[in-house]
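Weekly sync, protein design subgroup
Attendees: M.S., D.O., the rotation student, P.L. (late)

Item 1: inverse folding check
M.S. brought a backbone from last month's batch and wanted to see whether the design step gives back something sensible before we order anything. D.O. pointed out we never logged the input encoding, so this time it goes straight into the notes. Structure tokens as presented (167 positions):
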């Protein structure tokens, strides 16, 4: 289970220090959509999130959205942020992560993945050796399948990962 331990665990994407990414030589970010930058199935994007992405651009870090959600919403938010977006990503499968790195023009060692789910975002990133950042979900209201997965996630987080070693 230690295999699933994220490199960084923060409350929100806004708590990720962009300077730390720069220092860690991260050049590209693969960012989850639902419950990471927007609430589940919500079109709303907070001003602070928009500004965080603008700050990334200033620091010359490219970003790409990879979401298991459907096309229209994912591409709409990608367009709004001015970054590429991959929908129906099928995370944790490798395909979308590889596709994202191609779009970002980065290698695994210079790419980080940011998401709120251990078994999709973090596992997928780990499989390719990316830097992994887990965020707390923005809102508890979500897809029924995800809610079930959360129960399992809780067990792993509490018993196997963060028991002795709090991030
Ligand atoms: Mg998510």
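Designed sequence read out in the meeting:
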């Amino acid at each position: 289970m230690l295999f699933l331990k994220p490199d960084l665990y923060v409350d929100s994407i806004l708590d990720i220090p962009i300077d730390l990414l720069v220092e860690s030589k991260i050049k590209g970010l693969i960012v989850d959509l639902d419950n990471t930058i927007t609430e589940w199935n919500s079109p709303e994007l907070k001003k602070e999130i928009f500004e965080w992405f603008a700050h990334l651009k200033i620091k010359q870090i490219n970003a790409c959205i990879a979401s298991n959600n459907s096309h229209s919403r994912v591409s709409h938010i990608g367009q709004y942020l001015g970054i590429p977006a991959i929908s129906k990503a099928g995370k944790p499968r490798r395909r979308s992560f590889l596709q994202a790195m191609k779009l970002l023009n980065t290698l695994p060692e210079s790419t980080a993945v940011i998401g709120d789910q251990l078994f999709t975002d973090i596992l997928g990133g780990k499989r390719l050796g990316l830097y992994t950042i887990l965020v707390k979900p923005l809102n508890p209201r979500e897809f029924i399948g995800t809610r079930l997965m959360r129960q399992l996630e809780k067990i792993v987080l509490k018993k196997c990962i963060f028991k002795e070693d709090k991030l």
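Discussion: Residues 144-161 form the longest helix (18 residues). Residues 72 and 131 are 28 Å apart (CA to CA).
Action: P.L. to compare against the previous round before Friday.
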